[in-house]
Amino acid sequence: MNKFALTRLPHMTLLLAFKTVAEHGSFTRAATALHLSQSAISQQVVKLEEALGVTLFVRSTRTVALTRAGAALLDDIRAPFDQLVAAFEKCARKAAPSVLHIEAEPVMSAFWLTPRLKHFTQRFPALRIQQLLSTQRVEFPDEVELAIKWGTADWPGFETQFLMGLNYVPICSPALLEGPDALRVPADLARHPLLHDRHHHDWEAWQALYPTPGLEVRSGHVVTDSNVLAQLAIEGHGVALCAIELTERAVRSGELVMPFPELVMPHQLAYYLLTKPHKQISDMARQFIAWLKEEAGNGA
């Protein structure tokens, strides 16, 4: 029989306090991480030392270092402790409603994804989808499993899958098809202000593809929000160059029209699905990705 045996196991909070101090190398930082006071953390570590009959830390004014016994204890409890925490989290996830966290571009979410979401959520009535909206950057906090981002295929630090390309065409209010300056042929575009999304590049590329006499592609109004761009076009402020795929609802409703639907410009950028290369995604996220590809028309 062992000469030394615990009559009862130390409380979980004592082990958690010890592990947090050891991993942070500081009582202060451990207290911050656990949302407790420094004195509370110190008392919990002292209680653990008393229960075990060993000194776990060498304390000085500015530093905290593990003793040999403390280092051995940390090595022994780290893996089983993390497994226990993971088991609790897994159990809690099963009990809680399923939540899928995604990141998306605002215009893509507003005009393409959100109108289609009901088709997916009807399959999973208990599912809750939380969208983080970001423009021209990727945030990807820990809870996010996938992002839908506009750009090239090169996203350092992420695995990328092509989702969909966009086809741009001149779009405007139906009012611009009437009156003395009505849009009847492409040359009539020169009589109306052009609407630009952030810069003049798209209209410049369109003009290079479809040379139009008299069209000053660096003139007109510039906005930094694609939603505002569409609204400017709806209100008759000019002609915007927009993606057919993102304005289909407004065209169906009659808020917008395509005066020259044959003058389509495939955009050099596209939407991509981003995931972390070493982060396993949930089965729900995999099903969501497969559904997105089906909706975009590039499913396997």
Automatic annotation (TrEMBL):
Top-rank lineage group of the source organism: Bacteria
Protein family membership: Belongs to the LysR transcriptional regulatory family.
Origin species: Pseudomonas qingdaonensis
Domain HTH lysR-type: 12-67
Keyword Transcription regulation: yes
Pfam families, A to Z: HTH_1, LysR_substrate
Gene3D superfamilies in UniProt: Periplasmic binding protein-like II (3.40.190.10), Winged helix-like DNA-binding domain superfamily/Winged helix DNA-binding domain (1.10.10.10)
Keyword Transcription: yes
UniProt-recorded name of the protein: LysR family transcriptional regulator
InterPro entries: LysR-type_TF_proteobact-type, LysR_HTH_N, LysR_subst-bd, WH-like_DNA-bd_sf, WH_DNA-bd_sf
Key words, A-Z: DNA-binding, Transcription, Transcription regulation
Lineage: Bacteria, Pseudomonadati, Pseudomonadota, Gammaproteobacteria, Pseudomonadales
